[in-house]
From TrEMBL:
It is an enzyme of class 4 (lyase). It catalyses: 2-(N(omega)-L-arginino)succinate = fumarate + L-arginine. This is Argininosuccinate lyase. Residues 8-302 form the Fumarate lyase N-terminal domain. Pathway: Amino-acid biosynthesis; L-arginine biosynthesis; L-arginine from L-ornithine and carbamoyl phosphate: step 3/3. It comes from Methyloligella halotolerans. The gene is argH. It is found in: Cytoplasm. Residues 365-434 form the Argininosuccinate lyase C-terminal domain. Pfam families: ASL_C2, Lyase_1. SUPFAM superfamilies: L-aspartase-like. Belongs to the lyase 1 family. Argininosuccinate lyase subfamily. Gene3D superfamilies: Fumarase/aspartase (C-terminal domain), Fumarase/aspartase (Central domain), Fumarase/aspartase (N-terminal domain). One of its GO terms (molecular function) is argininosuccinate lyase activity.
Length: 454
Protein backbone atom coordinates (compact mmCIF):
# COMPACT_ATOMS: atom_id res chain seq x y z
CA UNK A 1 0.00 0.00 0.00
CA UNK A 2 1.25 3.47 -0.82
CA UNK A 3 2.15 6.02 1.87
CA UNK A 4 -1.01 7.32 3.53
CA UNK A 5 0.35 10.83 4.06
CA UNK A 6 1.56 11.63 0.56
CA UNK A 7 0.97 8.51 -1.52
CA UNK A 8 -2.04 9.68 -3.60
CA UNK A 9 -0.22 9.25 -6.88
CA UNK A 10 1.70 6.13 -5.88
CA UNK A 11 0.71 2.50 -6.34
CA UNK A 12 3.48 0.81 -4.41
CA UNK A 13 5.03 1.42 -1.03
CA UNK A 14 8.71 2.38 -0.86
CA UNK A 15 11.41 -0.29 -0.93
CA UNK A 16 12.72 -1.22 2.50
CA UNK A 17 16.02 0.41 1.75
CA UNK A 18 14.25 3.55 0.51
CA UNK A 19 12.37 3.73 3.79
CA UNK A 20 15.59 3.27 5.68
CA UNK A 21 17.50 6.02 3.94
CA UNK A 22 14.53 8.36 3.92
CA UNK A 23 13.39 8.10 7.52
CA UNK A 24 14.57 10.66 10.04
CA UNK A 25 12.28 9.71 12.92
CA UNK A 26 15.16 7.91 14.64
CA UNK A 27 16.74 11.27 15.38
CA UNK A 28 14.21 14.02 14.68
CA UNK A 29 11.83 12.74 17.36
CA UNK A 30 13.91 15.07 19.49
CA UNK A 31 11.96 17.94 17.87
CA UNK A 32 8.58 16.78 19.17
CA UNK A 33 8.05 19.61 21.65
CA UNK A 34 8.89 22.25 19.07
CA UNK A 35 6.72 20.54 16.47
CA UNK A 36 3.69 20.51 18.73
CA UNK A 37 4.27 24.07 19.88
CA UNK A 38 4.53 25.32 16.28
CA UNK A 39 1.50 23.28 15.18
CA UNK A 40 -0.59 24.76 17.97
CA UNK A 41 0.48 28.27 17.00
CA UNK A 42 -0.33 27.51 13.36
CA UNK A 43 -3.76 26.10 14.21
CA UNK A 44 -4.61 29.10 16.39
CA UNK A 45 -3.66 31.40 13.51
CA UNK A 46 -5.73 29.37 11.02
CA UNK A 47 -8.74 29.81 13.31
CA UNK A 48 -8.11 33.51 13.93
CA UNK A 49 -7.98 34.16 10.19
CA UNK A 50 -11.12 32.10 9.57
CA UNK A 51 -9.29 29.45 7.54
CA UNK A 52 -10.53 26.78 9.94
CA UNK A 53 -13.33 27.00 12.50
CA UNK A 54 -12.89 27.57 16.21
CA UNK A 55 -14.20 24.07 16.91
CA UNK A 56 -11.71 22.54 14.54
CA UNK A 57 -8.91 24.43 16.20
CA UNK A 58 -10.06 23.20 19.58
CA UNK A 59 -10.06 19.60 18.40
CA UNK A 60 -6.61 19.96 16.83
CA UNK A 61 -5.09 21.65 19.83
CA UNK A 62 -6.64 19.15 22.26
CA UNK A 63 -5.35 16.27 20.16
CA UNK A 64 -1.87 17.79 20.09
CA UNK A 65 -1.93 18.05 23.89
CA UNK A 66 -2.86 14.40 24.14
CA UNK A 67 0.04 13.51 21.83
CA UNK A 68 2.46 15.60 23.89
CA UNK A 69 1.34 13.69 26.94
CA UNK A 70 1.75 10.35 25.18
CA UNK A 71 5.27 11.18 24.07
CA UNK A 72 6.18 12.52 27.50
CA UNK A 73 5.06 9.33 29.21
CA UNK A 74 6.61 7.02 26.62
CA UNK A 75 3.26 5.83 25.31
CA UNK A 76 3.73 7.11 21.77
CA UNK A 77 4.49 4.61 19.05
CA UNK A 78 7.03 6.15 16.65
CA UNK A 79 6.88 4.59 13.22
CA UNK A 80 9.65 4.56 10.64
CA UNK A 81 7.11 4.13 7.88
CA UNK A 82 5.88 7.60 8.76
CA UNK A 83 9.32 9.01 8.05
CA UNK A 84 9.71 11.86 10.46
CA UNK A 85 8.36 13.55 13.57
CA UNK A 86 6.00 15.76 11.58
CA UNK A 87 4.17 12.90 9.86
CA UNK A 88 4.22 10.75 13.00
CA UNK A 89 2.44 13.45 14.96
CA UNK A 90 0.01 14.31 12.19
CA UNK A 91 -0.88 10.67 11.69
CA UNK A 92 -1.55 10.19 15.39
CA UNK A 93 -3.67 13.33 15.37
CA UNK A 94 -5.82 11.75 12.65
CA UNK A 95 -6.23 8.62 14.76
CA UNK A 96 -7.30 10.77 17.69
CA UNK A 97 -9.60 13.36 16.11
CA UNK A 98 -10.40 12.04 12.65
CA UNK A 99 -10.33 13.91 9.32
CA UNK A 100 -10.17 17.38 10.96
CA UNK A 101 -6.52 16.54 11.61
CA UNK A 102 -5.92 16.97 7.89
CA UNK A 103 -6.80 20.67 8.16
CA UNK A 104 -3.77 21.44 10.30
CA UNK A 105 -1.51 21.25 7.28
CA UNK A 106 -3.42 24.00 5.44
CA UNK A 107 -1.08 26.80 4.27
CA UNK A 108 1.90 24.88 5.57
CA UNK A 109 4.50 22.44 4.27
CA UNK A 110 6.94 20.23 6.08
CA UNK A 111 9.57 22.55 4.65
CA UNK A 112 8.56 25.59 6.68
CA UNK A 113 7.49 23.31 9.51
CA UNK A 114 10.91 21.72 9.94
CA UNK A 115 12.69 25.04 9.49
CA UNK A 116 10.53 26.47 12.29
CA UNK A 117 10.94 23.48 14.60
CA UNK A 118 14.67 23.41 14.12
CA UNK A 119 15.07 27.12 14.82
CA UNK A 120 13.04 26.76 17.99
CA UNK A 121 15.19 23.82 19.03
CA UNK A 122 18.48 25.59 18.34
CA UNK A 123 17.21 28.68 20.16
CA UNK A 124 16.40 26.59 23.27
CA UNK A 125 19.83 24.98 23.10
CA UNK A 126 21.55 28.36 22.87
CA UNK A 127 19.71 29.48 26.00
CA UNK A 128 20.82 26.36 27.86
CA UNK A 129 24.40 26.74 26.67
CA UNK A 130 24.45 30.36 27.76
CA UNK A 131 23.38 29.33 31.26
CA UNK A 132 26.08 26.66 31.30
CA UNK A 133 28.78 29.07 30.19
CA UNK A 134 27.69 31.58 32.84
CA UNK A 135 28.00 28.89 35.52
CA UNK A 136 31.47 27.99 34.30
CA UNK A 137 32.48 31.65 34.36
CA UNK A 138 31.25 31.83 37.93
CA UNK A 139 33.30 28.77 38.95
CA UNK A 140 36.40 30.30 37.37
CA UNK A 141 35.77 33.66 39.01
CA UNK A 142 35.43 31.92 42.40
CA UNK A 143 38.84 30.30 41.91
CA UNK A 144 40.22 33.66 40.80
CA UNK A 145 38.93 35.40 43.91
CA UNK A 146 40.41 32.70 46.14
CA UNK A 147 43.73 32.77 44.29
CA UNK A 148 44.16 36.41 43.37
CA UNK A 149 47.66 36.38 44.89
CA UNK A 150 48.64 32.76 44.21
CA UNK A 151 51.73 32.97 42.05
CA UNK A 152 52.35 30.61 39.15
CA UNK A 153 54.67 30.71 36.18
CA UNK A 154 53.27 32.38 33.09
CA UNK A 155 54.48 30.69 29.92
CA UNK A 156 55.13 31.61 26.35
CA UNK A 157 56.24 28.75 24.08
CA UNK A 158 55.65 26.68 27.25
CA UNK A 159 58.91 28.22 28.51
CA UNK A 160 58.77 30.06 31.82
CA UNK A 161 58.19 33.69 30.90
CA UNK A 162 57.07 35.87 33.81
CA UNK A 163 55.27 35.13 37.06
CA UNK A 164 51.50 35.56 36.92
CA UNK A 165 48.74 34.81 39.37
CA UNK A 166 46.53 31.74 39.18
CA UNK A 167 43.54 34.04 39.53
CA UNK A 168 44.62 36.02 36.48
CA UNK A 169 44.98 32.78 34.54
CA UNK A 170 41.43 31.73 35.49
CA UNK A 171 40.07 35.13 34.50
CA UNK A 172 41.66 34.78 31.05
CA UNK A 173 39.18 31.95 30.46
CA UNK A 174 36.32 34.03 31.82
CA UNK A 175 37.07 36.53 29.03
CA UNK A 176 37.09 33.82 26.36
CA UNK A 177 33.77 32.50 27.63
CA UNK A 178 32.30 36.02 27.53
CA UNK A 179 33.11 36.21 23.85
CA UNK A 180 31.62 32.75 23.36
CA UNK A 181 28.43 33.89 25.01
CA UNK A 182 28.45 36.94 22.75
CA UNK A 183 28.77 34.75 19.68
CA UNK A 184 25.84 32.57 20.77
CA UNK A 185 23.80 35.68 21.53
CA UNK A 186 24.52 37.05 18.04
CA UNK A 187 23.52 33.76 16.46
CA UNK A 188 20.34 33.74 18.55
CA UNK A 189 19.40 37.27 17.52
CA UNK A 190 19.81 36.45 13.83
CA UNK A 191 17.96 33.14 13.98
CA UNK A 192 15.00 34.58 15.79
CA UNK A 193 12.75 34.99 12.73
CA UNK A 194 9.82 32.74 11.97
CA UNK A 195 9.84 30.71 8.74
CA UNK A 196 6.30 29.46 9.43
CA UNK A 197 3.95 30.40 6.60
CA UNK A 198 6.64 30.25 3.92
CA UNK A 199 4.95 26.95 3.02
CA UNK A 200 6.80 24.73 0.56
CA UNK A 201 8.87 27.51 -1.00
CA UNK A 202 6.64 30.16 -2.52
CA UNK A 203 4.37 31.28 0.31
CA UNK A 204 0.64 30.59 0.21
CA UNK A 205 -2.56 31.97 -1.23
CA UNK A 206 -4.42 31.52 2.07
CA UNK A 207 -4.92 34.74 4.06
CA UNK A 208 -2.54 33.71 6.85
CA UNK A 209 -1.15 35.97 9.55
CA UNK A 210 2.56 35.32 9.86
CA UNK A 211 3.02 38.04 12.50
CA UNK A 212 0.65 36.15 14.73
CA UNK A 213 2.51 32.84 14.59
CA UNK A 214 5.85 34.63 14.87
CA UNK A 215 4.68 36.32 18.06
CA UNK A 216 3.16 33.18 19.52
CA UNK A 217 6.48 31.38 19.07
CA UNK A 218 8.42 34.36 20.50
CA UNK A 219 10.17 35.11 17.24
CA UNK A 220 11.02 38.77 16.62
CA UNK A 221 9.39 38.81 13.17
CA UNK A 222 8.52 36.54 10.22
CA UNK A 223 11.30 35.81 7.71
CA UNK A 224 11.12 38.09 4.67
CA UNK A 225 11.66 35.65 1.80
CA UNK A 226 9.94 32.29 1.56
CA UNK A 227 12.62 30.70 -0.64
CA UNK A 228 15.33 31.73 1.78
CA UNK A 229 13.30 30.73 4.82
CA UNK A 230 12.87 27.08 3.85
CA UNK A 231 16.41 26.60 2.58
CA UNK A 232 18.47 28.58 5.09
CA UNK A 233 20.50 26.66 7.64
CA UNK A 234 22.89 29.53 8.45
CA UNK A 235 21.38 29.66 11.89
CA UNK A 236 22.54 26.12 12.58
CA UNK A 237 25.94 26.71 11.01
CA UNK A 238 26.48 29.90 12.95
CA UNK A 239 25.55 28.13 16.17
CA UNK A 240 27.93 25.29 15.33
CA UNK A 241 30.69 27.80 14.59
CA UNK A 242 30.12 29.41 17.98
CA UNK A 243 30.05 25.93 19.54
CA UNK A 244 33.30 25.01 17.82
CA UNK A 245 35.08 28.09 19.14
CA UNK A 246 33.69 27.56 22.64
CA UNK A 247 34.78 23.90 22.49
CA UNK A 248 38.24 25.03 21.43
CA UNK A 249 38.40 27.24 24.53
CA UNK A 250 37.29 24.37 26.76
CA UNK A 251 39.88 22.19 25.08
CA UNK A 252 42.71 24.61 25.86
CA UNK A 253 41.71 24.72 29.51
CA UNK A 254 41.33 20.93 29.51
CA UNK A 255 44.84 20.59 28.09
CA UNK A 256 46.20 22.84 30.83
CA UNK A 257 44.40 20.85 33.49
CA UNK A 258 45.85 17.61 32.12
CA UNK A 259 49.31 19.18 32.39
CA UNK A 260 48.69 20.65 35.83
CA UNK A 261 47.43 17.34 37.20
CA UNK A 262 50.61 15.51 36.12
CA UNK A 263 53.29 14.58 38.67
CA UNK A 264 55.77 16.66 36.66
CA UNK A 265 53.78 19.91 36.93
CA UNK A 266 51.79 19.16 40.09
CA UNK A 267 50.13 22.56 39.80
CA UNK A 268 46.68 21.33 40.72
CA UNK A 269 44.89 18.39 42.18
CA UNK A 270 41.60 17.25 40.74
CA UNK A 271 39.04 16.00 43.21
CA UNK A 272 38.23 12.30 43.46
CA UNK A 273 34.90 13.20 41.91
CA UNK A 274 36.65 14.22 38.71
CA UNK A 275 39.46 11.68 38.52
CA UNK A 276 39.58 8.04 37.55
CA UNK A 277 41.90 5.25 38.57
CA UNK A 278 43.82 2.75 36.53
CA UNK A 279 43.00 -0.94 36.68
CA UNK A 280 46.67 -1.87 36.66
CA UNK A 281 48.62 1.08 38.11
CA UNK A 282 47.33 1.79 41.60
CA UNK A 283 49.07 5.17 41.92
CA UNK A 284 47.15 6.75 39.04
CA UNK A 285 44.67 9.60 39.18
CA UNK A 286 43.71 10.21 35.62
CA UNK A 287 42.10 13.44 34.40
CA UNK A 288 39.70 11.61 32.07
CA UNK A 289 37.03 14.30 32.09
CA UNK A 290 39.54 16.90 30.90
CA UNK A 291 40.77 14.55 28.20
CA UNK A 292 37.24 13.85 26.98
CA UNK A 293 36.42 17.56 26.91
CA UNK A 294 39.55 18.07 24.81
CA UNK A 295 38.51 15.25 22.50
CA UNK A 296 34.92 16.40 22.04
CA UNK A 297 36.22 19.47 20.25
CA UNK A 298 36.90 17.12 17.35
CA UNK A 299 33.33 16.01 16.91
CA UNK A 300 31.94 19.51 17.48
CA UNK A 301 34.22 21.02 14.83
CA UNK A 302 33.39 18.00 12.67
CA UNK A 303 29.69 18.78 12.97
CA UNK A 304 30.28 22.29 11.67
CA UNK A 305 32.16 20.95 8.65
CA UNK A 306 29.62 18.23 8.09
CA UNK A 307 26.72 20.66 7.80
CA UNK A 308 28.77 23.16 5.81
CA UNK A 309 29.47 20.45 3.23
CA UNK A 310 25.82 19.40 3.13
CA UNK A 311 24.76 22.97 2.37
CA UNK A 312 27.47 24.22 0.08
CA UNK A 313 26.13 22.99 -3.26
CA UNK A 314 22.37 23.08 -2.74
CA UNK A 315 20.27 25.01 -5.22
CA UNK A 316 17.25 26.85 -3.79
CA UNK A 317 14.99 25.91 -2.16
CA UNK A 318 14.52 22.85 0.07
CA UNK A 319 16.31 19.62 -0.80
CA UNK A 320 16.22 16.41 1.19
CA UNK A 321 19.94 16.81 1.79
CA UNK A 322 18.88 19.25 4.47
CA UNK A 323 17.46 16.45 6.58
CA UNK A 324 21.12 15.68 7.31
CA UNK A 325 21.34 18.96 9.24
CA UNK A 326 20.02 17.51 12.47
CA UNK A 327 22.33 14.79 13.69
CA UNK A 328 25.49 16.92 13.65
CA UNK A 329 23.69 19.74 15.46
CA UNK A 330 22.14 17.44 18.07
CA UNK A 331 25.41 15.67 18.70
CA UNK A 332 27.53 18.82 18.83
CA UNK A 333 25.24 20.71 21.20
CA UNK A 334 24.76 17.76 23.53
CA UNK A 335 28.54 17.24 23.58
CA UNK A 336 29.19 20.91 24.25
CA UNK A 337 26.69 21.06 27.11
CA UNK A 338 28.21 17.97 28.67
CA UNK A 339 31.71 19.40 28.31
CA UNK A 340 30.71 22.70 29.88
CA UNK A 341 29.02 20.96 32.82
CA UNK A 342 31.99 18.63 33.42
CA UNK A 343 34.42 21.53 33.19
CA UNK A 344 32.35 23.52 35.68
CA UNK A 345 32.46 20.66 38.17
CA UNK A 346 36.15 20.07 37.65
CA UNK A 347 37.10 23.74 38.01
CA UNK A 348 34.96 24.14 41.10
CA UNK A 349 36.62 21.19 42.84
CA UNK A 350 40.16 21.81 41.64
CA UNK A 351 42.79 22.56 44.28
CA UNK A 352 45.74 24.57 43.05
CA UNK A 353 49.06 23.52 44.61
CA UNK A 354 50.39 26.88 45.78
CA UNK A 355 53.79 25.59 46.80
CA UNK A 356 54.56 23.83 43.55
CA UNK A 357 53.36 26.75 41.48
CA UNK A 358 55.36 29.27 43.47
CA UNK A 359 58.49 27.17 43.18
CA UNK A 360 58.03 26.78 39.44
CA UNK A 361 57.31 30.49 39.12
CA UNK A 362 60.76 31.27 40.46
CA UNK A 363 62.52 28.94 38.08
CA UNK A 364 63.85 29.91 34.68
CA UNK A 365 64.88 33.42 35.81
CA UNK A 366 61.27 34.51 35.51
CA UNK A 367 61.94 37.92 37.08
CA UNK A 368 64.58 38.88 34.50
CA UNK A 369 62.17 41.36 32.92
CA UNK A 370 61.62 42.95 36.35
CA UNK A 371 65.38 43.38 36.65
CA UNK A 372 65.59 45.00 33.22
CA UNK A 373 62.65 47.28 34.10
CA UNK A 374 64.44 48.26 37.37
CA UNK A 375 67.55 49.23 35.40
CA UNK A 376 65.39 51.45 33.17
CA UNK A 377 63.50 53.02 36.05
CA UNK A 378 66.17 53.38 38.73
CA UNK A 379 69.44 53.48 36.76
CA UNK A 380 68.20 55.41 33.73
CA UNK A 381 69.30 52.82 31.15
CA UNK A 382 67.56 52.64 27.78
CA UNK A 383 65.50 49.41 27.71
CA UNK A 384 67.69 47.77 25.05
CA UNK A 385 70.83 48.32 27.18
CA UNK A 386 69.00 47.13 30.29
CA UNK A 387 68.00 44.01 28.35
CA UNK A 388 71.64 43.36 27.48
CA UNK A 389 72.89 43.89 31.05
CA UNK A 390 70.17 41.60 32.37
CA UNK A 391 71.15 38.96 29.84
CA UNK A 392 74.68 39.00 31.22
CA UNK A 393 73.35 38.72 34.77
CA UNK A 394 71.17 35.75 33.78
CA UNK A 395 74.20 34.07 32.19
CA UNK A 396 76.12 34.58 35.45
CA UNK A 397 73.25 33.18 37.53
CA UNK A 398 73.10 30.18 35.27
CA UNK A 399 76.85 29.64 35.58
CA UNK A 400 76.60 29.83 39.38
CA UNK A 401 73.47 27.68 39.46
CA UNK A 402 71.59 30.30 41.50
CA UNK A 403 68.32 32.17 41.03
CA UNK A 404 68.64 35.92 40.33
CA UNK A 405 67.61 36.90 43.87
CA UNK A 406 70.49 34.86 45.34
CA UNK A 407 73.32 36.59 43.43
CA UNK A 408 75.71 38.76 45.50
CA UNK A 409 75.39 42.53 45.10
CA UNK A 410 79.10 42.71 44.25
CA UNK A 411 78.57 40.25 41.38
CA UNK A 412 75.72 42.38 40.05
CA UNK A 413 77.74 45.57 40.42
CA UNK A 414 80.64 44.00 38.53
CA UNK A 415 78.29 43.80 35.56
CA UNK A 416 76.73 47.23 36.07
CA UNK A 417 77.95 49.55 38.85
CA UNK A 418 74.63 51.45 38.88
CA UNK A 419 72.91 48.48 40.56
CA UNK A 420 72.10 48.98 44.26
CA UNK A 421 70.66 46.88 47.10
CA UNK A 422 67.21 48.13 46.11
CA UNK A 423 67.21 45.81 43.09
CA UNK A 424 66.43 42.83 45.34
CA UNK A 425 63.00 44.30 46.04
CA UNK A 426 61.91 43.45 42.48
CA UNK A 427 63.51 40.04 42.10
CA UNK A 428 60.96 37.98 44.02
CA UNK A 429 57.99 36.49 42.19
CA UNK A 430 55.56 38.08 44.64
CA UNK A 431 57.02 41.54 44.02
CA UNK A 432 56.92 40.89 40.30
CA UNK A 433 53.20 40.12 40.14
CA UNK A 434 52.37 42.88 42.61
CA UNK A 435 53.97 45.45 40.34
CA UNK A 436 51.95 44.45 37.25
CA UNK A 437 49.18 46.92 37.96
CA UNK A 438 48.65 48.16 34.42
CA UNK A 439 45.05 47.80 33.24
CA UNK A 440 44.47 44.11 32.51
CA UNK A 441 47.72 43.11 34.22
CA UNK A 442 48.24 40.21 36.62
CA UNK A 443 48.56 42.15 39.92
CA UNK A 444 46.53 40.60 42.77
CA UNK A 445 44.74 43.94 43.26
CA UNK A 446 43.55 43.82 39.64
CA UNK A 447 42.52 40.18 39.90
CA UNK A 448 40.54 40.81 43.08
CA UNK A 449 38.67 43.64 41.42
CA UNK A 450 37.98 41.70 38.21
CA UNK A 451 36.86 38.60 40.11
CA UNK A 452 34.38 40.71 42.02
CA UNK A 453 36.19 40.05 45.30
CA UNK A 454 36.72 43.69 46.29
N1 LIG B 1 12.21 15.23 7.64
C1 LIG B 1 12.38 16.32 6.74
C2 LIG B 1 13.64 17.12 7.10
O1 LIG B 1 14.10 16.96 8.17
C3 LIG B 1 11.22 17.25 6.79
C4 LIG B 1 11.00 18.03 5.56
C5 LIG B 1 10.57 17.15 4.45
N2 LIG B 1 10.10 17.91 3.34
C6 LIG B 1 9.90 17.31 2.18
N3 LIG B 1 9.48 18.05 1.23
N4 LIG B 1 10.15 16.05 2.00
O2 LIG B 1 14.17 17.85 6.33
Amino acid sequence: MANTMWGGRFDLSPAQIMEEINASIGFDKRLWRQDILASKAHAAMLAATGIISADEEKAISGGLDTIANEIETGDFNFSRELEDIHLNIENRLKELIGPTAGKLHTARSRNDQVATDFRLYVRDQIDEIDGGLAALQYALAQQAAAHAATVMPGFTHLQTAQPVTFGHHCLAYVEMLSRDRGRFADARARLNESPLGSAALAGTGFPIDREMTAQALRFDRPTANSLDAVSDRDFALETLAAATIAAMHLSRLAEEIVNWASAQFSFAKLSDRFSTGSSIMPQKRNPDAAELIRAKTGRIAGAFHSLLMVMKGLPLAYAKDMQEDKEPVFDALVSLKLGIAAMTGMVGDMEPNKKAMKKAAGQGFSTATDLADWLVREAGLPFRDAHHVTGRIVALAEEKGKPLAKLELSDLQAIDPKITQDVYSVLSVAASVKSRKSYGGTAPSNVRREAGAG
